[in-house]
Write a structure and sequence with these properties.
The complex is a heterodimer of chains A (357) and B (231). Chain A has 357 residues and is an alpha+beta fold. In chain A, 22% of the residues lie in helices and 37% in strands. Chain A has 8 helices and 21 strands. In chain A, helix 2 packs parallel to helix 4 and helix 4 runs parallel beside helix 5. The longest helix of chain A has 18 residues. Chain A is globular and about 65 Å long. The model of chain A has no long low-confidence stretch (mean pLDDT 87). Chain B is 77% helix and 0% strand. The chains are: A alpha+beta (357), B mainly alpha (231). The interface between A and B is medium-sized, with 29 and 22 residues.
Amino acid sequence: MSLDVAIDHRQGDFRLQARFSAGTGLTALFGRSGSGKTTLVNVIAGLVKPEKGHVTVDGQALVDTGRRLFVPPHRRRVGYVFQEGRLFPHLTVRRNLLYGRWFTPHAERRARLDDVVEMLGIGGLLARHPASLSGGEKQRVAIGRALLASPRLLLMDEPLAALDDARKAEILPYIERLRDQAGIPIVYVSHAVVEVVRLATTVVMMQDGQVAAAGPAGEVMSRLDVASLGRAEIGALLDATVTAADDGYGLSLLATQAGELRVPALDLPVGATLRVQILARDVMIALAPPQGLSGLNMLQGTLAEIGLPQGASVDLRLDCNGAPVLAQITRRSLETLGLRVGQRLTGIVKSVTFAGR
Amino acid sequence: MFQALTTEEWQIVELSLRIATWAMFGSLPFGLLVAWILARKRFWGHALLNSIVHLPLVMPPVVTGYMLLLLFGRRGFFGAALADVGIVFAFRWTGAALACAVMGFPLMVRAMRLSIEAVDRRLEAAAGTLGANALWVFVTVTLPLILPGVVAGMILSFAKAMGEFGATITFVSNIPGETRTLPTAIYTFLNVPGGDAGALRLTLISVALSLAALLASEWLARRAARNVGAA
C-alpha cells in the first residue's frame, strides 16, 4: 500500500504546499499547531478540496485537480478518527461501531466486529450511549467505528489531544496494536513528541504549511535542525532487543544497533523488542573510553555533525555503528576538547527512556 | 348539558381533527425542505424566501384567506388548473386543510429551522467519511438529531390548525359538514339567538381537546429528546 500526496492549497492567508509519500506502518504528521497538519488530513479524507494537486492511494487517484477528478468522502474508503471522537449521540456504541460497515460493499468487509471489540477492549460498552462514556472510551469506540468500515487508509487527527495523561496512557497501547496487527496504513497527526517517538514508523515534519523533513522516524527525530522540537526533547530513537532479562544486578541487557545498553530490569522476556529514546541532554562526550566511571552505558561512535550553537550549548550527532546518537554539550566543552567532524568519540549515556513497544 | 355528544357535534370534532391532521402531515415535507434550505443554503433571495414564509404570521388572516381564494378558487390561478385534474379546494374541507397548513407553515418552519441549525455538522462529516452519501447522512444522522424540533414544528402546526378561523372562513366559508370546524361552529352558535348553550358545550370540548393535545405533545417531545441521547 502506498499513499502519495502533493498539494498546493490556500486558505485565507495560509498556504499549504506539501508533498510526501507514506507506506505501511504509522506515518506521523508532526508539527506545531497551525502548521497545516489537520488541513492536510482533511484533504486526504476529502473534507477539503485542494486548489491544486493530487492524492493517490495504491495508484488510484482520490483527487487530481489536473484531471478535474474529485472522489467525494463517502466513496474514498478512508477512515478518520477525529480529535473529538464525533460519535453519533443518538446511537448505541454497537450501532456507532457498525455504522460504516453498513455502507461497505460485502466483498470488502474485512474487519470483524468481534475482533475489533476485543482489540480495543470495548466489549462491555456495546449497549451504552456515547454520553455515558469517558473520554478514553469514546476515543476507543471512534477508532473501532473507523476500522469497521474496512478502510484502505486510516487517518487519526490528534486522537489523544483532548485526553489527560492517564487516558493517553490507556489508549497508546491500542494504537500500537492497531499499527502492528490491523495491517492498515495509518496517518497520525500530532504535535506531541512523546506520541510520535512512541508510535511513528515514518515522520513527516510540517512547518508553516511546508514539509520540513520526512523519512524514517529514527532519522528525522535525530536531525539537529529539527527546529520545531523543544530543545530539551531532542534525542535519538533506537530499536532494541532484550538479550538478558536480569544480569543478576537487577538490570536488563538490551542490544541496539548503536551498542549494548543496561537498563533497570524491564518486565520483558529475552527476545522482546522495544523502542528506546536517548535524550541529547542525557549524553556526555569523552575523547577516549573513560576509566573509573560509575556510568554503565558507553557507546562508541564517530562525530558526524555539529549543530548550530544555541545559547551556551550545542548539539552533536554521533554515528554509532550507523545509528544516530545525539549529545548536548556546552560550547565551552566543544572548544576545550577541540572536537572535529570525523573524530572517534565515546558517548556516556546517563539515562535511557522507554519509548514504546 | 353534560349529555354525550350529538351527531352534529361529533361531526364538527371529527372534521376539525381531520383538517388539522391533514394540514400537519401535508405541510410536513414542504416545511422540512424549506427549513433545511433556510438553515443550510445561502443564496440570492434567501431573505425574501424567509419573509414569504413568515407572511401568514404577520398578515391579517382575512388577507391570507382572500389570497388563497384568488389563487386556489375555482377560477384561481392554480385552482382552475388543479380542478382539471380533479383536485378542488374551494369550499371543501380540503381547502380548510390548505388554509390551516398555510397559516401554520411559518411556525412549523421556524421550529424545524432552529433544530437544523443546532445540528453539529462535524457529525455529518464523520458520517460521510464512514461511507454515507448526502441522503443517508440526512436520514441516519441529521433527521434523528432534529427529531425533537420536527415534532415541535408538527405540534405547532396542528395546534394552529385546530384554532384557525380567519383564513378558513374567508377561503372556504362555513359549510356544515364540509368546512365547519370547532372555531367556526362556536362563532355560528354565538350568532344565533339562544345558541349560548351550544357554544359553551363546544368550548368545553375545545378545552378538553387542547389539553389532551398538549399532554400528548409533551410526551412526544420528551421521547424524541431522549432518543437523541440528550440525557
